[in-house]
Amino acid sequence: MDGILVATSASGKAGHISIGSIVHDTHGDGQVLARCSSSDEEGETALFWAARCGQAPILRRLLATNRVNPTRQYHRDQTPLYGAASRGQTLTTRLLLDTPGIEPNPINESGRTPLWIAAAQGHVSTVECLLAVPAVDISRSDDSGSSPFLAAASYGREEIQFRI
Fold this sequence. Notes:
With 164 residues, the chain is mainly alpha-helical.
């Protein structure tokens, strides 16, 4: 594998996606080359992991390959955007929202959107990032009838309630 650099595991723990699925040609133009869609046992790819864990440089490289699907739904119908928002990863949330063709209101298996989960978790800057996108639906309720505003209220997220 002369000229090929393979990154090591993201966490070093079993069950987590190996960033070894990202192969980088050190003698070429620096583009991510192969196996961008490899997934772990829950079906999560390097793209989902990078978004959820706030790994903006890796996310940028993966998106630049045009070999990944940023709207693909993974375990429990979560998209990379949902994963980023759920962890308060504002930078990767922004990168995904700036990606052509991204769906800003994907719903998971419970009918929750990225805005809903970011509001419930209290991720103020991520909520602000999502609210800056006109297509984000602030009134979309989950399967139990809870809107992002109600989710913020039920978890005592007053600062977010004032923003929604």
